[in-house]
Design a protein that fits this description.
By secondary structure, this protein is of the alpha/beta class. The chain has a domain of 99 residues: 3-Layer(aba) Sandwich (Rossmann fold), CATH 3.40.50.170. It has 7 helices and 7 strands. Strand 2, helix 2 and strand 3 form a beta-alpha-beta unit. The chain is globular. The chain starts with a strand and ends with a helix. Bound molecules: 5-O-phosphono-beta-D-ribofuranosylamine.
Length: 195
């Protein structure tokens, strides 16, 4: 059984998909803790499923490295097999990435390497492309630049707002994330080999 720590910043819909999948006896992974860089709205999903949460706010530390060390300490308490960044909106300091990667994956609402960064959906709309997508990657020290585990295209529809498009992308993101976790748990994806 693959144990997961999931890090979020927002609503946690991808987290919820993992929590629901964790309830299926056939699913080979379990969320054991949920962390955030703030008092995230998505903690309510963890609480509903009886999963412990922790929050480490950047503003409480003198610098990013001190924050990263405190976050890493919390993550390590759980000794998880895999750490999933799912809507975690802060860049991790290089020493945190070095400590966790390649057992550190991220979901992104664009077809990387297209539209990296915090506004992948907005940037795709602004570029006027007819399709964008979703990706699951291994985290490295760049911005959404790590090895791609899986990705899928999502069409941009006429009249799409950022919200509409993001909602459709998130459906695909969730499927990709669940499949990636399944593949990692079953050994069909070897993160060390991909990294
Ligand atoms: C996802 O699209 C994630 O990739 C992006 O922010 C969104 C988070 O959604 N960076 P949620 O918190 O899982 O609902």
């Amino acid at each position: 059984m693959l144990s997961l720590v999931v890090l979020i910043s927002g609503g946690g819909s991808n987290l919820r998909a993992l929590l629901e999948a964790s309830q299926d006896a056939e699913f080979p992974a379990r969320v054991i803790a949920v962390g955030a860089d703030r008092d995230a709205e998505g903690f309510e999903h963890a609480e509903e499923f009886g999963i412990p949460t922790f929050s480490v706010a950047l503003s409480a530390f003198a610098d990013r490295d001190a924050w990263g060390d405190a976050l890493l300490e919390q993550v390590r308490l759980w000794n998880a097999d895999l750490v999933v960044l799912s809507g975690f909106m802060k860049l991790l300091p290089p020493r945190v990435v070095a400590a966790l990667s390649p057992q550190l994956i991220n979901t992104h609402p664009a077809y990387l390497p297209e539209f990296p960064g915090a506004h992948g959906v907005r940037d795709a709309l602004a570029a006027g492309v007819s399709e964008t997508g979703a990706s699951v990657i291994i985290v490295d020290n760049g911005v959404d630049s790590g090895p791609i585990i899986s990705q899928q295209r999502v069409p941009v529809l006429p009249g799409d707002t950022e919200h509409d498009l993001h909602d459709r992308i998130k459906i695909v993101e969730r499927e990709l994330l669940l499949q990636a976790v399944l593949d990692i748990a079953n050994g069909h994806v070897d993160l060390k080999e991909l990294a």
